Each structure stands twice: as C-alpha cells, then as structure tokens.
C-alpha cells in the first residue's frame, strides 16, 4: 500500500476561535450533548448547546463535557474499589462457607380429632 504524505496545517489557520462553527464540530457537540444527558446532574454543564456559534465556544463545551465524563468515571471507579461496611466481596459458591442458619422445621397440622368437640356454655 502506498503511503500518502499529508502536510501539517499551518498554526495560524488551524484553529480560529472566532470562526463560525463547522457542521463537523456541531455534530460532535450533538454527540457530546447526548452523552452529557446520561451523566448524573452534578456533572452536567450549564451550557446551552444551540447557542454555540464559534469554534471557541464549541471547544469550551467539548472541554467541559470531556472533563465531566472523566471525573464521573473516576469517582465511580473510586466507589467500586472502596470497601463498604458489611460487604464481603465475591465468593465462589464451591469455596463459600456453609450457612450457619438452621434449616426451617416442617410445620405439622394437628388433627381435629385429638382436640375433641368444643363445649358451649
């Protein structure tokens, strides 16, 4: 397979924060908005995405949502690895200790013949 050389973009033209946002960036913002809606409320941004008009505004939104997603995942991972009170962790059924609970006793039904008829006063 032939290698195709792609020149690097010039630094002056590559990112212009005042340039109108492209459809590619708007699509990325839309995808991130969908991902942001699935986050808990404390991680969500207060940015109204339909008001994004420039590359700079899009970049700021993308940065905030990406940081929020990373923070949410880091906090969830920390909660999963932390020990919880009263939790033993996973045990294999074959290696688990036998239960200390006593088996339930079968209830017997007493027959009405032994009691005899009820006396009325």
Concise overview:
This protein is 41% helix and 0% strand. It has 121 residues and is mostly helical.
How many individual helices?
4
In N-to-C order, the SSE pattern is HHHH
Give a quick account of the main beta sheet: strands, pairing sense, barrel closure.
none
Anisotropy-based shape: elongated
Helix percent reads: 40-55%
State mean pLDDT (0 to 100 scale): 82
> How many angstroms does the end-to-end distance come to?
108 Å
Share in β-strands: under 5%
Rg from Cα = 33 Å
Q: Give the helix/strand class.
A: mainly alpha
Q: Would you report the number of β strands?
A: 0
Ranges with pLDDT <50 over ≥5 residues? none
From the structure above, extract its key features:
121 residues, mainly alpha, 4 helices, elongated
Explain the overall architecture:
The protein is mostly helical. It has a domain at 16-80. Helix content is 41%, strand content 0%. The protein has helices at residues 11-14, 23-37, 55-81, 112-115. Helix 2 runs parallel beside helix 3. It is elongated. The mean pLDDT is 82.
Secondary-structure topology with pairs:
Blueprint: H1 11-14, H2 23-37, H3 55-81, H4 112-115
Helix pairs in contact: 2-3
């Amino acid at each position: 397979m032939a290698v195709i050389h792609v020149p690097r973009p010039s630094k002056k033209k590559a990112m212009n924060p005042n340039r109108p946002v492209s459809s590619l960036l708007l699509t990325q913002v839309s995808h991130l908005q969908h991902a942001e809606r699935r986050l808990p409320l404390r991680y969500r941004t207060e940015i109204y995405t339909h008001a994004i008009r420039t590359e700079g505004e899009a970049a700021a939104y993308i940065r905030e949502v990406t940081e929020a997603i990373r923070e949410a995942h880091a906090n969830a991972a920390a909660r999963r690895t932390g020990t919880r009170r009263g939790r033993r962790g996973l045990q294999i059924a074959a290696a688990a200790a036998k239960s200390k609970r006593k088996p339930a006793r079968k209830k017997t039904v007493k027959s009405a013949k032994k009691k005899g008829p009820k006396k009325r006063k």
